[in-house]
Design brief:
Blueprint (H helix, E strand, L loop, with lengths): L16 H4 L6 E4 L2 E4 L2 E3 L8 H13 L6 E5 L6 H11 L5 E6 L6 H5 L7 E6 L6 H14 L4 E6 L2 H7 L2 H5 L1 E6 L5 H14 L3 E2 L1 H11 L3 H16 L5 E2 L1 H15 L1
Parallel strand pairs: 4-7, 4-8, 5-6, 6-7, 9-10
Antiparallel strand pairs: 1-2, 1-5, 2-3
Helix pairs in contact: 2-3, 8-9, 8-10, 9-11, 10-11
């Protein structure tokens, strides 16, 4: 068994919704890169898991259709923002892409840059935080500036509730895609690979418990395994057991309460 007293000062495992609603830095993509905070950068490769790759493939199809609207949903921590960023990366050089967060107030100036371009894709993240009126007005502004633009809305399940309240916008949805939690085998691969990187081992029941506790939510899997690595790091040559994972979770869950 691992000694886990050191976790008293650790960060909570399961973060609150407001903390979990993180988005990649939004920006306007131009042929020379992504503009984020006034600094141009080149898109980087993004590792995706099965459900995320499937969602990305469907979105890539949807944005090829002019004046289309696609929706990507998933529970917090499942990788919606990651897939949205991967889509932007895939489209680099082939389309004019505007990548924004729905919470940005001034977006019309970014849409105006699309007016004279051909293949336009607008990717909007964290749409579950919007209001019904905001989603409708933003979409209308996009198509007013660029009538043939393809729009992708990403967010948690509440996004579909918002769309259901705007029949006109809902009728325009060409594709709906959902990111599912990790499979048991994917969780096992992550746990064993990350622990092995630091020279640690775990029992078979340990990664099963990780999957049960996290429900296969990617962000929570990484966080729980990360804490197990911290604990095991002070006790080399110790195999992490299921009881260790449960104790780590209990301590962190209690700290979050």
């Amino acid at each position: 068994m691992l000694e886990i007293a050191m976790l008293n000062q650790a960060k909570p495992l399961m973060s609150k919704d407001s903390q979990r609603s993180r988005s990649g830095a939004p920006g306007l993509r131009s042929p020379s890169g992504v503009v984020v905070g006034g600094i141009k950068t080149q898109p980087s490769a993004i590792q995706l898991f099965h459900s995320q790759r499937a969602a990305l493939a469907r979105l890539q199809y949807a944005v090829l259709q002019e004046s289309s609207l696609a929706v990507l949903c998933g529970p917090g921590g499942s990788g919606v923002s990651t897939v949205m960023s991967a889509l932007v990366t895939k489209l680099y050089g082939a389309s004019h892409v505007v990548h924004i967060d729905v919470r940005q107030a001034e977006v019309s100036s970014q849409f105006a840059a699309c007016r004279a371009t051909g293949n336009v894709v607008v990717v909007i993240d964290n749409c579950h935080l919007a209001t019904v009126d905001l989603l409708g007005s933003v979409s209308e502004a996009i198509w007013l500036q660029a009538p043939r633009a393809s729009v992708v809305l990403g967010g948690r399940g509440r996004l579909m509730t918002l769309l259901s309240r705007d029949r006109g916008l809902l009728d325009k949805v060409l594709l709906r895609s959902v990111i599912h939690p990790l499979s048991l085998s994917e969780t096992r691969s992550i746990v064993e690979t990350r622990l092995a990187t630091n020279g640690h081992a775990c029992s078979e029941s340990a990664w099963v418990v990780v999957h049960q506790i996290t429900g296969g939510i990617l962000e929570d899997v990484f966080r729980l395994v990360g804490m197990a690595q911290v604990v095991a790091g002070s006790q080399p040559d110790t195999t992490i057991q299921a009881d260790d994972i449960e104790q780590i979770y209990e301590r962190l869950h209690a700290a979050a309460a």
